[in-house]
Amino acid sequence: MPGTFEPLPGGGAAVALDDVEISIIRSLAVQLLELIGPGPAEDAPDDPLAELFADGPSEPPADPVLRRLFPDAYSDPEGTPEAKEAEEQRAYSSEFRRYTENDLRAGKRDNALAVIRTLDALSPVDDGGAVLKLSVEESRQWLSSLNDLRLAIGSRLEITDEEDTDLLYRLPDEDPRKPMVMAYLWLGGLQETLVSTLLP
């Protein structure tokens, strides 16, 4: 089981992680939380209903990683639309973002927090590391968070398609991006095996 998720009887998944792997995943999840930022309720803790009625941002984030995590809902993937069509897409995307981004951010925060909490609750084994056991719901949260982490790292590495991923395998060891590339590929392996545990 080292390094790969395996299904648990009755649902859920398990993976053996060493101390370094636990530390890396936890650190990345904390960085993701910092990037996503606090929710409206955290900004105004004296008003418990503030988050329910708060409008989200209407403009795309300036940070390219956040733009990847919270893309425009309306855009033409086939190319550059006409000026009028582009303006309509921006208006629709702005309205959609205003009503949905706060919820999307809250979901991503909850998933990253679930990763951190499950790692913090691990009991180490004698030779270091631990076996992480996840319920079905925790598995889904992990899967979402692993996807977000890979999107974030992929954005920093400027990965836009499969060809870019193929180039990563050929990076020389002295390339400063190599540690990030290794994390990206490793998280992809974890994500793939976790998906397989959730399939019927």
Concise synopsis of the structure shown:
With 200 residues, this protein is mainly alpha-helical. The protein is 60% helix and 6% strand. Strands 1-2-3 form a 3-stranded antiparallel β-sheet.
Considering the chains and any ligands shown, give keywords for the structure.
mainly alpha, three-stranded antiparallel sheet
Strand content: 5-15%
Tally of helical segments:
8
Gyration radius, in Å: 19 Å
The beta-strand count equals 3
Q: Which outline best applies?
A: globular
Report helical residue fraction. Answer: 55-70%
**SSE string, helices as H and strands as E:** EEHHHHHEHHH
Strand order across the biggest sheet? 1-2-3
User: Largest sheet, if any?
Assistant: 3 strands, antiparallel
Give unreliable regions as ranges: none
End-to-end gap: 20 Å
Task: Give the overall pLDDT as a whole number.
Answer: 85
Structure classification:
mainly alpha
